[in-house]
């Protein structure tokens, strides 16, 4: 994962946490981990993040994130 990818991921997670709508405790913990320390996402985590972004209307920020573990 490049520094640019990490910054995009961190910004999206922070935006989702700041908005706070529809974020439960488990989602908040996941997003908090991404803000604190970014890491390559598993396919399941990537899909979860996409779903959270869509619900919050932040699909445009999610577009272009390609840091799924292969």
From TrEMBL:
Protein name: Uncharacterized protein
Superkingdom of source: Bacteria
């Amino acid at each position: 994962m490049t520094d640019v990818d990490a910054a995009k991921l961190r910004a999206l997670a922070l935006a989702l946490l700041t908005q706070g709508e529809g974020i439960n405790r488990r989602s908040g913990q996941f997003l908090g981990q991404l803000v604190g320390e970014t890491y390559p996402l598993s396919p399941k985590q990537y899909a979860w993040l996409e779903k959270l972004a869509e619900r919050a209307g932040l699909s445009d920020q999610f577009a272009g994130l390609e840091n799924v573990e292969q």
